[in-house]
Amino acid sequence: MKSREQEYREIFMSEALEYYDAMSRHISELERNPTDEPALNELFRLMHNLKSNARAMGFIPIGEVAHHMETIFGLIRSKEMTFTGTVVPVLFKGIDTIGEMVRAVGADQELPDVVRLLDNLDRLVKGEEPVLEEAVEDDEEAGRKLELSDLVYIQIKKLDHLLNLVGELIIDRDRVLTLSQEIGNPALIAAAAHFSRIADDLQYSVMDARLVGVGSLFNKFPRVVRDVSAAEQKDVELTVVGEDIQIDRNILQIITDALLHLVRNAIGHGLETPAEREASGKPAQGHLTLSAQAERDDVLIQVIDDGRGINVNSVRRKAIERGLVGADVAATLSDEAVQAFLFEPGFSMAKEVTEISGRGVGLDVVKLAIDSLGGQLRVDSVLGQGTTFTLVLPTSIAVKGALLFVLEDRNYAIPLMHTDSVVSLQPDDFHVVGGMLLARVQEENVPVVPLRRLLHNGDGPLPAANKADLHGRQDIIIVNYSNRKLGLIVDRFLRQQDIVIKPMSKPLDTIDLFGGVTLLGSGQVCLVLDVPALTRLFLARRP
Fold first, then answer.
1. Distance from C-alpha of 429 to C-alpha of 296, rounded to nearest angstrom
2. Which residues are recorded as modified (Phosphohistidine) (predicted)?
3. 3-state SS, residue 487
4. What is the largest CA-CA distance in the chain?
5. How far is CA 192 from CA 174, 176, 180, 199, 303, in A?
6. Which one of 243, 346, 398, 529 is at 20 to 30 Å from 472 when CA atoms are compared?
7. What is the CATH number of domain 399-541?
8. pLDDT digits (tens, 9 = 90+) for 517-534
9. Is 232 helix (H, G, I), strand (E, B) or coil?
10. Taking a C-beta distance cutoff of 8 angstroms, is the pair 51, 15 a contact?
């Protein structure tokens, strides 16, 4: 994996070489027509940008040459100097030198000496004659080299199209592998295995081309934190961790507004004023951390503050008052499950802000953005100590890991992003509370429902649970969405595999319970369940 410094260096090189090519073109236009204002303005702009970028990267000599050149183009723009006489060769030499310096940076070589060039540029600014080098005959020719950048800018839509094609290839790969195993021909099996390896390499190469460091987004937040802190009259220190973690650029773009909202919310409502913090025995300065880390096939982005925290009991009361959950069931819910109510649309209105420490305003919008990616939004909080919001995101949005299972002789898939665990339990392992089936899984009471009831039981409430309806071993997929766990009883598990999710065709695309379809290696169509929609349906129809 590239380091952040390598990534920024490559970006600088790519842009600098493009600047150099554009400078060479525009100065030639200016030589043909010294009054060409668009060319002159563009030269001034390019020099200014190169100066800023070079200084930011620590390439001070490049920045100095660009600064001197910018000054002279500024004088030409203001009519204090004309692009004639000895000014012309000196500026041409300056642009050639910039090209040499940029190529030297790319090759990790020593930068050329620019003392004479800078002296001549200073002479021009002072109105003095430069000291020009004598022309040297070169039968094999301006030692000049024409070089292209080894970096290319590609439109995201082109990468999207390429990734879609790879997705189709992955589907056919699975079909070819299945057919080769059924036919049993050794040569066909070997060819299919080779095809599979090539398809895998191509898939990962295309996905890798779309990856960017989260630092490209994180680096925008110091200014945001400064501005919001000043507006809220709070003292906030920002720490950024994990800028080198790579993620799909489209995913990063989609979560930008969500992350901005969480940071503003943390400063505005999570962190206390300096006086409030000191009164509660905390340092006057609040601490906010933006963190990214890789976890298996996912990327975890966290917004962590050491502020007020969330009053879970207040949230629990509000959830009961608003009819989101019955009092008997609410009493059995864990703190994490209660905090999930913060993500309900409109749960926290302005008059309720102080009762739940301001958390929850707009969190439903943040959650919807994460849902659109097939990700998860989690919240962990300790009253008086702080809150952590965790965005669990896939590294790619085209190919996803999924768990395949069978229900009523049909194959279904659930994205692994929302799969917490799979368990097999006997009827005696269940108990009934408030008409709802519960199972003790990993020291936690998890509501359980037969999936067929959710899919086929109409719009009315689910019938009260009865352990007598359970016979023999029950295969259960524990899904996790917005800090809520739900057990889905299925007929049997199949396997785990990567799938390419395709959108449902009309009119099936109006069915919320399915997030799309995929094709299995056997050629069968497999429906992909939408866990957020299933969870919402269960909450709306539970006994």
1. 31
2. 48
3. strand
4. 101
5. 9, 6, 7, 10, 45
6. 529
7. 2.40.50.180
8. 787 766 678 888 888 888
9. helix
10. no
Collect all residues with Cβ–Cβ distance below 8 Å to 28 and sequence separation of at least 6.
none
What pTM value is reported for the model? 0.59
DSSP code of 502?
B
- Are the beta carbons of 76 and 31 closer than 8 angstroms? no
Per-residue burial over 463-481, b if 16 or more Cβ lie within 10 Å, else e, is: eebeeeebeeebbbbbbbb
Residue 444: which H helix or E strand, with range?
strand 444-450
For residue 393, give every residue at least 6 positions away whose Cβ sits within 8 Å of its Cβ, in sequence order, or none.
247, 251, 255, 298, 299, 300, 301, 370, 373, 375
Token pair, residue 192, equals 């299919």
Average pLDDT of the segment spanning 335-362 = 59
Please provide the DSSP assignment of 188-203 as one string: HHHHHHHHHHHHHHHH
Helical H segments across 210-245, by residue range: 215-218, 221-232
User: Read out DSSP for 128-168?
Assistant: PPP-PPPP---TT---------S-----HHHHHHHHHHHHH
Number of H helices and E strands in the chain, helices first, is 17, 18
The CATH number of 212-394, from 2.40.10.120, 3.30.565.10, 3.40.50.150, 3.90.1100.10, is 3.30.565.10
pLDDT at residue 286, rounded to an integer? 95
Angle at CA of residue 467, ends 465 and 471, nearest 5°:
125
As given in the structure block, the two tokens for residue 176 are 């070819």
CA 526 – CA 400 distance, rounded (Å): 14
Q: Which CATH architecture has domain 156-209?
A: Orthogonal Bundle (1.10)
